[in-house]
Design goal:
The protein is an alpha+beta fold. The chain contains eight helices and five strands; from the N terminus they run ααααααβββββαα. It holds the Pfam family MlaC.
Length: about 200
């Protein structure tokens, strides 16, 4: 299931490419639309230049253009849930966030390298009480189209994505299921150490 989830997000998780949406000048839909247009240009150029198999290029793209557009602390809280208080009490917040980043980077690395010209379009958006949801469709050739829901809101007058789901499978819920089970089995500190080691191993491989 996780393999299918990673494959499904093959271009979706790059939606935060290089533009910071100011809340006073854009709506959430305009923000995602601008990112979508920039995304297709950036990935098409990278594909034509044969950069999508270059790990150093991909990691630089992730570090400089993608991660800054996510609210990592809010996403981490949604992943760790009831374990967050223990994380804060044990002064492990940064380690916990770093573990989430490493997990996301593994997904993003696979996502970038698998891009093959898929078309992206916004199909729906709605405002809830405290955040917005923008739905996009990823059109594929001969396969089922994918629907992605982005949850985003304003943080310090800037739009940030704090969660998303692919075909109804939420990233925070998916990661929570695996991480929480490991914490219950091995404890918080051993789990964070294992996640860090796994992330480094994937980076070095």
């Amino acid at each position: 299931m996780l393999r299918q989830f990673v494959h499904s997000v093959s271009v979706i998780t790059l939606m935060a490419i290089s533009i910071v949406g100011r809340a006073d000048s854009t709506t959430s839909e305009q923000f995602i639309k601008a990112l979508t247009e920039r995304l297709e240009i950036t990935l098409t150029e990278a594909k034509n230049n044969k950069q999508l198999s270059n790990i150093e290029y991909i990691d630089e793209l992730i570090d400089q253009e993608i991660l800054p557009q996510l609210n990592l602390e809010v996403l981490s809280k949604r992943i760790y849930r009831e374990h967050w208080k223990e994380i804060v009490d044990k002064n492990k917040k940064q380690e916990a966030i770093n573990a989430v980043v490493l997990s996301l980077k593994r997904t993003y690395r696979l996502a970038v390298s698998s891009y093959d010209g898929q078309k992206i379009e916004i199909v729906e958006s709605k405002s809830l009480k405290s955040y917005d949801i923008v739905r996009i469709k990823i059109a594929t050739d001969g396969d089922k189209d994918h629907m992605i829901d982005f949850a985003l809101r304003q943080f310090d007058s800037a739009w940030k994505v704090f969660d998303f789901s692919v075909d109804g499978i939420g990233i925070s819920k998916t990661l929570y299921g695996s991480i929480s089970q490991q914490i219950q089995s091995d404890g918080l500190e051993k789990t964070l150490e294992a996640l860090a080691q796994s992330g480094r191993a994937n980076t070095d491989s």
